[in-house]
Every structure is written in structure tokens, then in C-alpha cells.
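Annex B, item 7. Sequence and C-alpha cells for protein A, then protein B.
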Amino acid sequence: MSKTIPDGAVDAKGELLPELSKSAKKMKMVRLLNTPAPSFEGKTPGSRFWTWVAFTLARRVRAVQFRTSHISGYENIPNDRGVLFSAWHTNGLIDALAIMLPNPKYFVMGGRHDLVTRPILGWWTRKLAMQPVVRKAELLRGGCSEEEATYLNGKTLLSLSKGISRGFGCVLFPEGTSHDESHMIRFRTGPMR
């Protein structure tokens, strides 16, 4: 195990490291290592039926949340090959929906490790072929060893790159965080690095 850093510790800029949720603190390595790999033989990397159900529900959520929406720039995204979308992400699914719903491609996704091990949400994310990622915040807090994190993240990146090479979309939010502040939090440069 790596050296454990408790909640309340600060980063190099003097800001608090993100506090981990209860589920993020529980690293279920056997379950994470047994996460099913995406299948790139069909139209979707995960279950075609459950992907359709999830996208239908997501469209309803978007319709309820927003009366109108306008997304520009999709004409600049190539349709003849795979693509990678990367952005800074805070709370909720709204930014992920803005990327995924108008896009003609289906996606293989990388997400926080506990999204695939939670009881109900994990079932859905595994059906959608989401691949688990161990973030630095979990690693610093002793959730797993550096070797385990490197292996799991390498396996995930290999799955994501295979999806891109087979013409699917890929979405990855490297500096994802949760907060309940009423103001903007410090912007991080992860997607640009």
C-alpha cells in the first residue's frame, strides 16, 4: 500500500484534497479486476438493449431539466473514425449528457472506480461497458497499492483505446470532482495536460 493521506490534507496549492465518498473509500479490487471488458463487435460497446434504455432515460432527464438546448461544434467531429472527448467535470450527469446524447456514436466510458461496484448503479454501468479508473485521490488515501492502480488503469486505458480504434466514441473526465459549493471551484488543467 502507498502512504495514506487523511481527509483534510492540502495539495501543493494549499487547497483541500477532495473528500472521498463512502463508496469511493471502499476499493473492491477483485470486483474491479473482474469488470467485463467492452465488446466492440456490435453497434454498442455494452448491452445494446440496456444502452438504448439508458439513452432513452437520459433524453427524458435532459428534456425535464432544460426547455431548450443548443450544442454547437459537432460538425467539426469526424464521423469516419473513433473520437475521444475529455473535459473537466463536476457533479452530476449534465455535462456528460451534453457530450453523449447529440453524438451519433456510442461510447465506451472510463469512470470513477466505485461507479462499477455500487449495488444498483454498478449494474447499469457494467451493462453500458463503463471501465473503472482509480484516481489519485483514492491512491493517496491508501485504497489500493500503486501496482494495483497502475494495472487497473492500464487495463481501462487499453479498453478505451480499442474502442476508439474500432470507431466508437470515448469519454473521460480526468479531473472529475464532486462539490456542493454555491460558487465555482478552482479550475483544474487535467484535460489540457
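Protein B:
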Amino acid sequence: MLMGLTLDRPRLSFENASIQHGRVAATMRMVGGKQLQLKESVLAGETHKVVTRLSTLNAIVGPSLIFTADLATSQSSIGDEGAVVLKLIQLNENGEFIYQYKFTGVETEFERIRLGTHLAELMKTWGDELTTLPLSELRESEDSVLEPARFGIRTHAEHNSAKRGDPAFGEGAVVLFIAMKGDKNGSYPHEDKDMLYMLPSSAEKFTSNLILAQDLIYNKVIFPEINKVPWVADAKFEDREIPGSRHRELVATAGGWWARINHEVPLFRCLTPAFGFNYADEPAMRFRVERNGVVFKLNPDPVFVDGVVGHREHTANPWPDRKFTLKTTVDVEVVFSFKVKVEGENSVIDFSVQSQRSNTAIELVYADPKVTPNQIQFIYDYLKFYRQGLQAYATSLAASLVDIGATLDAFRLNNLLFKGGNVVTPVNLNMPTDLTVLGHLSPQRTDLVIEPSEVVVAGGGSLTFKASGASDIKWSVDNVDGEEGEKGDIDLSGKYTAPSADSLRASGFRRVIVTATAGDKVSKAMLSLVESSVSVYPSVVVVSLGSKYSLVAGEVDKKALTWTLKDQNLGAIEEDPDKDPTMQDGRKFVAAKTLPAPGAGEPLNFISSRLAEVEVSSADNSKRTIDVLVVVDQSGSYWLEAEVSGTGVQLTFYRTTRTVPKEKVPAAATHWHKYKGDGTFENGLYTPKAGSAEQYAIVTAFYDDGDSVDRFAYMIIPVPFVSSQRFVQLLGTEKVN
């Protein structure tokens, strides 16, 4: 039974670097609350319960609820106002859980899955508002191109990562596949080998690669910008694939530039046919993707045209035309590039003009020897006019393209998986086919940041926070919303002092928020407060002879811990091969196979049960004790029942005999013993000591028939861990038909 449970925010991790078999795990640590385990049995036609374990949960030793699912079935989505969410309760078409749920705070895998599923069934009734995990939030942007609608998460194995001994063994990447608004869904690679590993081996050791598909770049960035230019429509560009390349180009199919010399007066003329070029003539006018960007080119083959020039003495005379040849050349190039730049505090991808040139020429390359110098000069004068016109035309083409440009707020897509602003430092942009930006997952901390951002502090302890990104910091501390109790103090330097251990004893934990403020900048840190610098899990447990049980401990600063069993006759402390990897330290308690006989003056109860004390201590002598009640196998016909008596609990010892289903065990042969608890215990009545730090008592009742060792019953009385009324209610008996 879990009471007053407080769970930390879920944390994502990924398993199995495989496109097909990757898994996602969401882990929620239990940072506060109480755990009480009961064992149920049927005696005298009634169900009876007995407490077998108590635990106080906190941020050091709290167990976890773990959600795991195949990435292929897990669903992530982008909700209202850019919220990126993962639903922790997901069902398939048959109404079955997609996730497998485990609770780590129990001994066997069967118990972990069963209790985890029970908690999931409970969470299923809570509604989406409580079971939707906000992974992150897309920052606001005016970028209408990169508006993600759906995304999927997969893992991908590095080449050779499956080969043990290879340097890449076990390596893999988390890959997000993103569909933009208005786009159709794509498909995932069938196997790892079907997709290039996106983090290339290099001295840079890149940890991030943002890849924008060429279709998206062409259709949503390049082409729309080009089509804004007025004359582009007249050129009727066609989208074609570049021969021998996976790139594409826009090729003009209409339009052109034309001129002619048509000068004729009564005694002189200079004529040419129309000369110029069609945009579609090879090499055609085109926009081509190359050089990490786009290049506009207009460089047709030179155009040669023959003209005539002549001068006559009289209008009645025929024209004595002499031939000449003109050569027209045009070379216009505008280069657009993609590059990373910083706008404000964010990195963006900028698409803009990098360079341009426009060169034209109309040259006289041949003239009949009989063409006079005056006639040649006339031709040159005309060519000067047409040269100016052609150059102006070419310059206007280039100038009309200068305003083409776009800014892609692409790096905000990292917010689909990571919280915060600049979570990636871009390093290298290339456009071999798709646009790829390699970089590093290394936040640029330009805002106010306090460290540590999440920490555990023991009662009465202190910690000094550090702030970066601003000066003149104002510090404050408050309880988490909905929680109360002493919150501690923080001074002007950022030194926080936790409330006393006594103030934390009843609940075992508390959470507070430290806030640093500098002008309009705010940063917060979460503090989990615990009673002692050393915490243990569980606090007390019942273990049968010869069995093993996992024990967990941790220290606020993760200092090394020492484990000591006070009475080596009752068992041993061993390494725990099944230790929860999220816990700092853990051991197996291995109970002895027999109990030592009671010594002179020791209670007969020692025949059937003994209290083993496992002490866990740190180098500064902080210590906690785990109480382990080691018991022999019980007779199924002896048990204890409880009822409230004043401020305490009255226990009654019962048994079943051959003739009587339920009777009190004879008082004269009953031996009561208290192993733990600073209250009074007499004839089965336990009365807690007022104001005591003890949270429970451990007692047994033993029937002495002069021969048997198993006529006994034990009880962990969790008062004031819970109230006496609540305890008796939990043990409530029910008739069994």
C-alpha cells in the first residue's frame, strides 16, 4: 500500500539501438510518501492481514514506476500551443496497455509487473491531464515553413555496433522523424542498414545532426521564394532532376531577350535581323542546387548575327551593302547560400544572396574590308546603345533576385526532445542532397541559470547556490504548491539552510523551490529535503529463515556507505546482483538457516524470531538502521488481531484447534515481547510514547507448549507511521464463504 505518494517528473531514456526494436522508458521516481506491505491469509474462515514491511520514500531511496514500450507503438504528439507530449497511458485497438509498467520497490519480477500494472490501472482513471507527459514545448516562431504536425522517435545502431569488440559496440543514436503540417506521412526504414548513420565519425565527435529533406527545402523554401520574382512566371520554369545527380533544378522553357539594328535613311542604312537568345536555349536559364545553396545562371552560348551597312550617293542608286558580324554574350550568375547565423539568442538557418555578377557584351567581330571607318564608327555607336540596354537588362535580372531569401527557425525542432532554448551548437552546414547541420548538444547559457538545479539536502544541512548569466540576484525559497511545512532559509549570497531533521521526521520528506531573480529573468531549482543524510529502504521488513531480501541505501552527496550486521549469527550482508541501477547502493540480506537458542534470561520468543539490525553509515558517521525481523516458518493456526485502545493498539493472540475454529491462546502460556519501539508494551497493549521519533514497533506473541517452535505470531505496529485507527482499519477482517 502506497500512501501520500509523490512522484518526480518522468525522465525519458532509450534502449536497444535498433530501428525495428528500439524501446522507450519513462521513469518516475517516488520522492515522497509511505509504503506499507501487508501479507494476507485465511484463518478460521476469515481473511487476516499482517504488516511485513514499512518504508519511508524520499528522493534518495524512493523506488520507481517505469513505463516501457516499443518505439514502434509508442505515440508522441504536438498539442495545443506547441506543447510536445507523450501519453503515459496508451491502449492498443484491443484496449490493452501499450506500455509495460513496473514498480521497482518489490522483490520479484512478478510483483514488479503486477504492482506496476495495478498503478497503471489506477492512473487510467485520472484522465489525460494527469497522464500526459510534457516532453518539451516548441518555442514560438514566425517560421511558417517548419511547422511540425507529427513526429516519431526511433533508435538507430551505428555501423558495426552489433559486433562485440568493435569500438562502436553498443553505440546508437536517437532519431526523430518529423512530418510538417500539410505533408503526408512517410515510412520508416525497415532495417538499420537501410539508413545511413547520421552521426559521422570525425575528430569533432558530433552529437547532433539536423537534416531537412531536399523535397522540403525545394518545395517550401527555394521554389516559393523564386516564384515571388515577377518575370519568373513568364519564363515558365520546369522542375527537373539534374542528370547524374539527386539534386534538382528549375529550367526555363519560354521567354528571352531580343534586339535588332534597323537604321535606314535615304542615303545610309545599317541593318541586322533580330538577335538575342531564348531562355530555353541550351544551356538554358536555370536555378540549380549546388554549393550548399542555389545558383541562378543565364549564360547561353554566344550569339552571332550578320548585318549589312551601306552608303549611296543618290536615292536612285542601289545599296552597296557590306557585311559585318556581331557577337553577343551574356553571363549572369546569382549565388544563394544556406548558412547558420544567430538572431537574438537563437541560431537559425539563413537562405540569402551570397554573391552576384552580370556581364554582357556585343562585339563587332568581322567587317567587310570595304566597310569605311565612318561606317564602323556608326556601328560602334549603335552597339553602345544596345550594350547599355543588354547590360541594364542583365543587371535587372540579378537585382530582382537579390530580395529572395528565407529564415528557417529549424533548430527549435530540437525542442521536440529537449527542453530549453539553444540545446544544440551548430557547427557544419552542408547540402549534398538533403540539408544537414552537424553540431553538438551543448546549451549556450545566455539566460539566468542557477546550479545545482535539482538537489537533495538533509535536515539541518546547507548548500550554496551559484548563479550565472546575471548579477544582482535576489534569492527566495517557497514550498511546492499544495505542500506545507518549514521550508528553510536562504540568504543574500544564495546559501540555503534546511529546516531541522525533527521537522521532517513525520513525513520523511519535503520539497521546496529556490528562486533566483534578476530583473525580468527568473530561474528555479528543486530541493528535496530528507530527514538524514543517509536514507534506507525499507525501514523494517520480515524475512524467513534461509531467504534473501534486497536492501537499499543512499547518501545525499553520494558518499561511500558502510554496511554492518550487528549480530552475524542472524545472517549475512552480500552484494546484490539485482540492485536497482537507479539506486546509489544496495545489498542482499541473507537470513541464517537456523536461529541461535535463547540464552539465559532471554525471552522464549527468541526461539521463533530474532531482530537483526543492519546499520548503514557514511564517513561522517551519519547512520541509519534497517530492522530485519528473522522468523521461522509459522504455524498457520496462530495469529494476532488488533483494535484501538486509547492512544494505542491492543493485540489479541488467537489460534485454531481441532475442535475450536477460533479461540484465544491461553494467557498463562503466552509470552509477549517487544523488539523495537519506545512505547510501553504489556499483555498485548502497545501505547506509543508521546512525541517520540519512533515510527513503529515490532512485537511477537509466543505460545509455549514445551515442544514446538512455530506457535507464534508477529506484528509490526506502524504507529505513528499511520494513526492507530488507520492501522486497525487496514487489518480489518472479512468473512470468507
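Comment on protein B: The chain is about 10% helix and 45% strand.
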